[in-house]
Design brief:
Shape: globular
Number of strands: 45
Number of helices: 11
Low-confidence stretches: 1-14
Radius of gyration: 27 Å
Mean pLDDT: 95
Largest sheet: 8 strands, mixed
Amino acid sequence: MIILTAVIAMSASAQSISERYLQSFTSGTLKARQMDEFHAMADGETYTMLSADGKRIEMYSFKTGEKVRCVLNIDSVKGVKLTGICGYEFDTKEEKILFHTATTPIYRRTFTTHYYVYRIARNEVEPLSENEDAQQMAHFSPSGRMVAFARDNNIYIKKLDYGTEIAITKDGKRNQIINGTPDWVYEEEFGLTCCFVWSNDSKLLTWVKFDESEVQEFAFDRYTYPYDQSYTYKYPKSGDNNSSVSVWTYDVENRTTKKMECGEGNEIYFPIMKWTSDNDILAIVRLNRNQTELELMQVNARSGVAKTLVRETEKESIDYDNYNSLTFAEDNSFVALSERDGWKHIYLYDQYGAIVKQMTKGEWEVMNLYRYDAKNGICYFQANMEKSTEKHVYCVDKKGKIQCIDKSAGVHSAIVTEKYIVENYSNTETPNVFTLYDAKGRKVRTILDNSEIRKTIGEYNLPKKEFFTLTTAEGVALNAWIVKPATMEKGKKYPLVMVQYSGPGSQEVQNRYKPDWESYLAMEGYVVACVDPRGTGARGRTFRNESYGHLGEIETHDQIEAAKVLGNIDFIDRKRICIWGWSYGGFMTLRCMIEGGEDIFKAGIAIAPVTDWRLYDSSYTERFMQTPQLNDVGYAKSEIITKAAQLKGKLLLCHGTADDNVHIQHSMLFVENMVKAGIDFEMQIYPNKNHSILGAETRLHLYRRFNKFLKDNL
């Protein structure tokens, strides 16, 4: 009787720990603290950060970490009463601060807010605009005497010396014309929030104009009381009309506007604009619609005349993001990333666009280019030279000698200034640690170590994530990890949950700190595994392009083969395997259940899945599939709505009704065909939730729903 009581007590304790972990994970309390709003100051020896309560901007010494002074405390300034700071920037002379307060999201990245200008010497704050309507993406001119910002699809300039505000565009109109801020596709698929840039001398402002007039509208309901509200916005689906884009420049002194001669229309994209070292010369990246042709263009912003500096063409898509690393020297020579040899590396070009040399080389990839020291010919960058599942920070000199800044296994990133390197490191067992190095890679001190989070994680005694290479029957080597229950009985077979995303260029198998569902599942007695199939990233262009033109085909094959390999492990019950995925991963879950059948996957959980790529947005889909007009066969093979009747196994399908990204239409059309075929399934709907299904209470409900489904079906 005493022994039975002890067993019951231990069981209750274990259940309590797993439930506490789930609550901590879904509420975000296990997220590692970051260096919020970090800004290196012009003196090279200090930096500023936003305080934890968001009320102060504080300055610290790089070397000692000691606080030098409080630059701004909103509780003690003259002018206005404010509750908190969400983001800020200094002018070039560091005499003024432009900051914004509470934000109202538009979509995933963009937001409206109210901006304020703080004059440091006077300790005074004033609203950026006297107009009470919210603004977007305000930025100082390099001179610090003006601020450009967007409001209601138009661009404005505030002249701080005179307190005057002028509209430099007046044709902005919702769902028709957007000036200087992105349309839905540019925000979601190019990661943009701002589409205007100041010239170095503050005399010119250049922006992208989006004409959405011919783009189809999409609508969904927002469930409110007493009547529903319909939300309508422009969403171009694959093969349909995109926004017609053009590039314009405003001359501040002459108050004139000129269209740039770099092309216009709805068959091109302008995802990147950067000023060169010349005050009048702008660099613009132009992509064709299928994103197989990329041009780096040099545009004279005064005359509007454009010419091509670099041109890349491929049979498959070109990664435009390579040119976000574009950095110009004083003579207008520049560095950028390219996959010309099949691997992403750093190239040095002269001012005319000719390649001077390839600065890095090998069967590994440069993930980010942090800084180019043109004077000394040194580049600081992030790469996966050691392992494709890890990332480290390096520098390469003009002779090609490469030095690794860090040594610890895991994922490292950095902010690089002229004198210092602020390195951010984590692995599966180590929450983010921020370490300061000097420019030569010598450690100065630890800035932030997240010791409290590390202590909390330690109290859960989480099972370790083991990394390995999974080799399919065909000899294909795939990166993978596995998490086992902390205590396993000899001879017992455990159910397996395969978590995956599998999308083009993605990478889920990384040695980084990312508290997630797998730890909870392991506490609940499941084995959890993740496999990155062909088509994913960090392993070169050829590996990534395996899925080009036929999304889901090769990835599904690899996940099925991976399930077979995992199912043969002695402690895994191959008859109790569930596959789980969100977004692209949801699409993969459904495909795997259709093609693998119940013999492979007894159950599946699909969250916000794509079910037909003809229903998804143009830029992302066409990047990997071309347009439906050019690849009708590929689209027909990839869609799964008409194949819903072939689904086998137990399914839980989840979706938010206000998903502006993967519309709930995808799930509903799939459900309609399952119903026609008489297939039983479970469905969980989240009213007014978007693609991420956010909110601590909602997330807790969602993951508890997952857990119940698994207990009922595995």
